[in-house]
Amino acid sequence: MTKPEKKTWQGVRAEVQRRIRTRAWKPGDAIPFEADLAREFGCARATVNRALRDLAEAGLLERKRRSGTRVALHPTGRAVLDIPLIRKEVEAAGQRYDYELLARSGSPAPPHVAKGMERRDAPHLVHVVALHRADGRPHVLEDRWIDPETVPDAAAADFHAKSPNEWLLENVPFTRSELSIHALSVDPQTAELLDVAPGAAILALDRATWLEERPVTFVRLMHDTGHVIRSSITA
Amino acid sequence: MTKPEKKTWQGVRAEVQRRIRTRAWKPGDAIPFEADLAREFGCARATVNRALRDLAEAGLLERKRRSGTRVALHPTGRAVLDIPLIRKEVEAAGQRYDYELLARSGSPAPPHVAKGMERRDAPHLVHVVALHRADGRPHVLEDRWIDPETVPDAAAADFHAKSPNEWLLENVPFTRSELSIHALSVDPQTAELLDVAPGAAILALDRATWLEERPVTFVRLMHDTGHVIRSSITA
DNA sequence: CAGTGGTCTAGACCACAGC
DNA sequence: CTGTGGTCTAGACCACTGG
What we know:
2 copies of one chain form a homodimer.
Chain A: H1 9-21, E1 30-31, H2 34-41, H3 45-57, E2 61-64, E3 68-71, E4 77-83, H4 86-92, E5 97-108, H5 111-116, E6 124-134, E7 137-146, H6 164-171, E8 176-185, H7 188-194, E9 201-211, E10 214-223, E11 229-234
Antiparallel strand pairs in A: 1-3, 2-3, 4-11, 5-6, 6-7, 7-10, 8-9, 9-10
Helix pairs in contact in A: 1-3, 2-3
Chain A binds a DNA duplex through helix 3.
């Protein structure tokens, strides 16, 4: 190989990336061992390790003990989505944020909620519906269900002042969370709340969270038509 | 603090996470310096560094030179989406994969393509339309545009044997890629190809990629109704 | 059971942001 | 200028896995 590098782990990563990009190392190929690369680059093995680990996390390399490191056959792209507070998201876009509590009650979990929380029964949950606005226009309809057994404080929380979105994030820790993204045709009732045409296609984000094995909350965020989730892909 | 840990970086991370979760260290608080934690845990500073760096990447901590490390105010969740080959995705679901090239031509980029590729003109591109099936049923409609100036081989590529999705991934490296996810009401023509009701809500993924500053390709993947993108959130 | 990546250590120097 | 995180080194041991 023709091009050594600076002895920083970013330098090593850049050089390895270059060799993959220029096909000096082809998909499926085994690349030299850490120790050999360290010698070639004139740096410590730990430095090479750091660089290769980073590329493996990005999906460009596949590493196995004993058998060594290979260039990934299909560089499976990985997109990282930031899931900010809705308020922050709106403010970051330079728009005026506005929030309104629409309903609050208690009721048994409907099927899609029970399923999202991985429960086969239909537990009694706190149900909160809230609307987030951007520059006065409906932006996100938050349909949230909270398990009062895991979050007893939810009954007393003042969701007029702070959205459940924000209140939960600040007051209830969680250990696991599942996200699913899908497209929905809005039903007439939701359409009116969001001020969109009935039957329009909207983006819905379902998110369920747990604290250890105890369910915390399930929320469906229904976005205004035309909403787009953006991300750059690390590769 | 009451609970030291194993001297592995995962052990340190677990303990720090526990202190955050139990609110021993509250959001916004500064936590002890690396050197102090290393002494407390009886391990090397590098080990503490590894653990704290990991938590910072996950968004739980905010680190600054000189001023130290703080617990993040709003643990902004981060979802990692894997973007696999469509073929792999179908096969992973245990379904039979099937692929058909529907059309291939050359034409000027329509507005949404030019915009996605960050161009103000309407360059002449290779246009390929292909259908991916799962168990015989339409799964994804691939509407792809390739810049022949960046990818001269595209003209000669055999898209009957391999989908452009797969061919590009194996033959053309890229350095940057942007993803956007949105919901669409399918137009009648697309509805017929996907075998869904006209006007149904579907999930569309737009992806543009570049090699250095040169545009490579833009693709819109239109999914079958009911398709869901899933991910677990690291926090 | 041997080889390769995964990790820990103790020490050192550097870069950058507050003071 | 000083202190804190960021990184590098050289060496060591461990864990997993493929032959």
